[in-house]
Amino acid sequence: MKSLVEWYFRLLKLLVVGCMAVMVVMVFGNVVLRYAFNSGISVSEELSRWCFVWMVFLGALIAMREHAHLGLDSIVKKLPPIGQRICLVIGHLLMLFVCWLITKGSWAQAVINLEVTAPASGLSMAWFYAAGVVFGVSASAILVVELVQALRGKANGTGDGYAADPAQTLTLPTDARTQP
Questions:
Q1: What DSSP character marks residue 124?
Q2: How far is CA 115 from the centre of its chain?
Q3: Any bridge partners for residue 124, and if so which?
Q4: What is the pLDDT of residues 98-132, one digit of tens each?
Q5: E-state strands within the chain
Q6: Interhelix angle for 44-65 vs 126-152, to 10°?
Q7: Is residue 72 exposed (0-12), middle (13-18) or buried (19+ Cβ within 10 Å)?
Q8: With the CA atoms of 26, 27, 28 and 32 taken in that order, what torsion angle do they form, in degrees rounded to the nearest 10?
Q9: Residue 146 in contact with residue 92, Cβ under 8 Å?
């Protein structure tokens, strides 16, 4: 199961790199074509915007898994371990609620726009809103796993999910550490 998760996040990283490459090629190519040849790629702006949206949502997933988002934990660090755990659980429950809102709203927009096509590319606008659904479902899975681990006392804040020593106390995953 762990290798499947690792494969999934490697795929996400490749998709983020692919989105960035497509954005750079499309925008740079369009600028060169407009100034040098007085023409352009009609779908460049639209596809670049779509790639940007997907890149942001997928990048947020990667950062969530690696605990790379910025966090302010100066007050929480001063609490005893049980207080830290309570704050972690409350924070995760609030984030799960937000993920549910994002998933529900994105799904509703995808369904509404299923038959609506984008003006330049002709692609279904549901693909645009599907980024929120992918984010909401994947982020919820990450949060549920971390919440269960926190409740069991196994969270260590390093992103791998398990404490090296079972007797290790809970460390909040709010510092901005990244993993190789």
A1: B
A2: 26
A3: 117
A4: 999 999 999 999 999 999 999 988 899 999 999 99
A5: none
A6: 0
A7: exposed
A8: 100
A9: yes
Q: Are 139 and 64 in contact (CB under 8 A)?
A: yes
Q: Quickly count: other Cβ atoms within 10 Å of residue 163's Cβ.
A: 19
**Lookup: tokens for 121:** 């590319």
Structure tokens at 97: 């609620």
97 close to 84: Cβ distance less than 8 angstroms: no
Smallest CA-to-CA distance from 40 within 48, 87, 54 is with 48
**Nearest residue to 176 (alpha-carbon basis) of 148, 149, 151, 157:** 157
Q: What are 120-179's pLDDT values in tens digits?
A: 888 999 999 999 999 999 999 999 999 999 888 876 444 444 333 333 434 444 444 444
- The C-alpha atoms of residue 149 and residue 128 are separated, in whole angstroms, by 33
C-alpha dihedral sign at 132, 160, 79, 88: positive
Distances, alpha carbon 20 to alpha carbons 72, 135, 149, 151, in Å: 29, 18, 34, 38
What SS3 state is found at 117? strand
Q: Please report, rounded to a whole number, the percentage of residues in the chain having pLDDT higher than 70.
A: 86
